[in-house]
Amino acid sequence: AAAPKVAVVGAGVIGLSTALCITETWPSCSVTVLSDQFSPNTTSDVAAGMLIPHTYPGTPIHVQKQWFKETFSYLFAISNSAEASEAGIHLISGWQVFKNTPKEELPFWSDVVLGFRPMSEAELQKFPHHLFGQAFTTLKCDCPPYLLWLEKRLKAAGTQMYTRKVSDLWDLHSEYNIIVNCAGLGAHHLVRDEKLFPVRGQVLKVHAPWVKHFIRDGDGLTYIYPGIHRVTLGGTREKDSWSLSPDPGTTKDIFDRCCSLEPSLQEAQDIKVKVGLRPSRWCVRLEREVLSQGRVQLPVVHNYGHGAGGFSVHRGTAKEAARLVGECIAALQGSSSRAKL
Ligand code: FAD
To answer: Which part of the chain is the FAD dependent oxidoreductase domain (predicted)?
Structure first.
């Protein structure tokens, strides 16, 4: 049978990593990425890219932990290679601090990150408003470098990439055998998923090269995440807000909250404001679906709805999506051999 033609819709961290995983797992497939935006114009470009999982209430914890573990080990290997700086992947140590002792002292991911431990008294002295804290080392993906590195890997594997807005997945049925939907928040319109909603996040990207440790308030709202070139200061979580324009009042509020955690940030320079809409859902939609019109069928694999934690789990969900593409290939081959009989 001819090599199956696979179209991946979306070129954020989920689309690009899924396309790469498909080319690695099924090298005989011809893979094309179709997207209305590429880096630097995706939500993924706004993200801090820290590997600290967000919890999806509708996905079993052991599954989320597996996704995180796979992502962590994949990026850990890159961070230990000569590719690390081009790929924008680096290890980073720091603190998560709490005003009250958290309900669960050990998050599910505590044995995946490195060296997770309670903070010492000496460390806590840096945070006079906080009672308790956790110290650990994790990984960070700098964007856009990581997305550009994924694109480069895809081009080397022969993947085509086209700018194209898809208004209906069915429009692709005459050109492709299998569709992989990684449209992020775009899936709200593309497949009319009412369960998908935006959670608006505003962040500042500043020049403060003396800040080397991450600091995150346990409420998840205020954070300081140093990257290779710039420090990301956050943030906000505004459910159902579709606005992409920065709000000046919010900028000041974020800056003040971050300065109260790390007073030296008062000296930060070159403050840039970014807004992104997290593609949020009760659980990631990671499943197979067969669209049909009459006797014509089009297999689809959905992989979207990663909300606040897409970077933290992207490789794990990409692997599962590639496995589901394998099921679609097997089903196509089964039906084409039946058709010949
Ligand atoms: P996107 O990056 O939005 O990509 C979707 C792609 O689909 C785009 O290329 C778009 O053009 C394309 N598309 C959409 N509709 C169509 C269509 N109809 N036709 C063609 N193409 C289409 N996560 C972490 O793990 N760690 C963090 O530290 C972190 N920080 C964050 C900070 C902020 C402020 C925000 C907003 C998010 C943060 N996230 C973080 C979450 C993370 O950014 C997302 O989970 C992730 O980027 C989702 O990736 P995606 O590829 O699904 O979506």
So the answer is: 5-324
* Residue 220 binned pLDDT confidence (cut-offs 50, 70, 90): confident
Q: Give the Å distances, CA to CA, from 239 to 169, 203, 247, 251.
A: 27, 16, 15, 18
C-alpha span between 298 and 291 (Å, rounded): 5
Q: Is 231 annotated as a binding residue?
A: no
Tell me, using a 6 A CB cutoff, whether residue 53 lines ligand 1. Answer: no
Per residue in 308-335, pLDDT (tens digit) is: 999 999 999 999 999 999 999 999 988 7
What is the CA(44)–ligand 1 centre distance, in A? 4
Domains and CATH numbers, the chain: 5-335 (3.40.50.720)
Read off the amino acid at residue 105. Answer: E
Distances (CA, A) of 114 to 52, 75, 94: 12, 13, 11
Cα–Cα distance measured from residue 128 to residue 59, given in angstroms and rounded to the nearest whole number: 36
Q: From the CB of 17, is ligand 1 less than 6 Å away?
A: no
281: left (phi over 0), alpha (psi -120 to 50) or beta: beta
**From edge to edge, which strands make up the β-sheet containing 296-304?**
160-163, 30-35, 5-9, 178-181, 296-304, 285-293
Ligand 1 atom at minimal distance to the Cα of residue 38: 9
Total residue count of the chain as it appears in this document: 341
CA quadruple 176, 152, 76, 215: dihedral sign? negative
CA distance 255 to 1: 58
Whole-model pTM: value is 0.97
Helix, strand, coil percentages (3-state) for the chain, rounded to 5, are 35, 30, 35
**Is 223 marked as a binding-site residue?**
yes
Q: What is the mean pLDDT of residues 176-196?
A: 98
Looking at residue 33, its amino acid is V
| Cβ proximity of 314 and 56 under 8 Å | no
- Indicate the helix (H) or strand (E) that contains 200: strand 197-207
| Interacting residues of 179 by C-beta distance below 8 A, sequence separation 6+ | 6, 7, 9, 169, 172, 298, 299, 300, 301
Ligand 1 touching residue 150 (CB < 6 A): no
